[in-house]
Design goal:
14 helices; 18 strands; Rossmann fold; six-stranded parallel sheet; alpha/beta
Length: 460
């Protein structure tokens, strides 16, 4: 990272001094939030702008190096502006000098920094932004190794000191199956108590399968070449698993502060690579060559990308296993998939998303071992009334194994729409002037879990 000039540093310190210990100033007024998009190398940066928000000014200042990452971001924003149904009205003001970061910090033309891109740079972006007194909405992961986790700890401390909000985008909390897992687990008469499990038979399991070749916003997703460099993107065990570890915390221990120093114990972690041929790499990046920084990943003329990982750990005494797999492309008719298991003393909850479910996540309830089937069914149906009251239209359907939870289509808004939900939540936090008490310690616990797993897997 370049050294800041004396004048730039002086301006940053002045801005920070003006904002420290002052009320947040956000009231929900129209256009009071002014976005600064910083080096948008990941398509998630654009998905935050797939919808308009009354509180957010349509003029967005973008600071980034010139290149294909920026070009793709602008193309996505333009597609949102030009779509036939409910088009957006974003206006992009772009700065592409080599000093894009220093210029953003010094000019202070907004009050919320949004960053989604190269993860090797992201944690430093976050720290410098909160040091300068900006709120930050960041894509995951905010840390990809032990060094960046230490920097993230510092960033949260500075954010608190400067009275700004640092928050990551956890879209999976808004999937209806995730919401139902969290809600049902809080009904003792239905779920019982969360089991502790064992290392061989964890009480909580989260598995995710993703694909390098996919469609986003109706178009084939063009990946940046650095996406295949784990030194820049991060290994799979610290990337997608961020969502899975977050869901373990969010569904099993809702609104509860988790202290990673005392409540999280890593047991084991492993990593493995995904083979990607040179042609596959060129197809998804649209390059006609392999960059120099990827040459050392090539074995037998195939790129070996460490995109897969698994971790086993204890959280509040509960054994959990989290794993992520990256393939090149989904099977015909398939998509990214998710599997989840939560074991209660009365009911086990299972989410499956395979061919049998038409690749749509489906929640099943089955009796825990030792439960008398007839009494269990009565308890489930009685306890589920709380769900049907909160979510009209969601019903139970009997199966040979137990129950399938039938979910009307309007609850399944889709992954891309979840970004607007996260953004709306963050905008409310800005008005409140704070995050819930558990959010920051739990974000730290989440990134401790993923980065510690990474260290253990690398050691092996």
């Amino acid at each position: 990272m370049k050294n800041l000039s004396f004048i730039t540093l002086f301006l940053i310190l002045m801005i920070s001094a003006c904002k420290t210990d002052q009320p947040s100033g956000f009231t929900g007024a129209q256009h009071e939030v002014q976005l600064l998009t910083l080096n948008p190398g990941h398509f998630h940066a654009a998905l935050v702008q797939k919808e308009m928000y009354n509180q957010v000014h349509p003029r967005v200042h973008i600071y980034a190096p010139q290149g294909p990452d920026l070009d793709l971001h602008l193309q996505r924003i333009e597609r949102f502006n030009q779509r036939d149904e409910n088009p957006t009205q974003w206006e992009s003001i772009i700065y592409t000098g080599d000093d894009y970061l220093e210029r953003m910090l010094a000019e202070a033309r907004g009050n919320v920094v949004m960053t989604a891109g190269n993860n090797r740079l992201k944690t430093s972006y976050i720290l410098q932004s909160v040091q300068a007194g900006f709120n930050v909405l960041s894509d995951k992961p905010m840390a990809i190794n032990g060094e960046s986790f230490g920097m993230l700890q510092q960033a949260f401390a500075v954010a608190e000191q400067n009275n700004v909000l640092l928050y990551d985008i956890m879209t999976e909390r808004y999937a209806i199956t995730s919401v139902l897992l969290r809600e049902i687990a809080q009904i003792p008469g239905l779920f019982g108590e969360l089991e502790k499990g064992t290392p061989e038979d964890p009480a909580v399991v989260k598995e995710s399968v993703h694909h390098f070749f996919k469609y986003v916003a109706g178009a084939v997703l063009q990946r940046p070449p650095w996406y295949f460099d784990v030194e820049q993107q991060g290994e799979g065990i610290v990337d997608v698993t961020t969502h899975l570890v977050d869901l373990v915390q969010w569904t099993c221990f809702p609104d509860r502060i988790i202290n990673y120093r005392t409540d999280v114990q890593m047991i084991d972690a492993t990593r493995r690579s995904t083979p990607v041929t040179k042609q596959q790499f060129m197809n998804v990046t649209r390059l006609d060559y392999i960059p120099e920084y990827l040459q050392n990943t090539i074995k037998d003329d195939v790129l070996q990308v460490y995109a897969n990982g698994e971790m086993l750990y204890k959280i509040n005494g509960v054994h959990a296993r989290v794993s992520v797999t990256w393939d090149y492309v989904a099977p015909e008719g398939g998509d990214d998939t998710h599997y989840s298991l939560m074991k209660g003393t009365k009911t086990h909850m299972i989410v499956e998303q395979g061919e049998a479910q038409n690749y749509i996540p489906v929640l099943y309830l089955v009796p825990a071992p030792g439960q008398a089937r007839s009494q269990w069914e009565d308890d489930v149906q009685q306890g589920f009334e709380r769900i049907t009251q909160a979510f009209p239209g969601i019903e139970l359907a009997a199966t040979a194994e137990g129950f399938k939870v039938e979910v009307p289509s309007h609850y399944r808004i889709g992954h891309e729409a979840h970004f607007a939900k996260v953004t709306e939540k963050y905008l409310q936090f800005l008005i409140d002037g704070k995050l819930p008490d558990w959010e920051v310690p739990n974000m730290l616990s989440k990134y401790y879990t993923t980065t510690r797993a990474y260290e253990i897997a690398r050691e092996k």
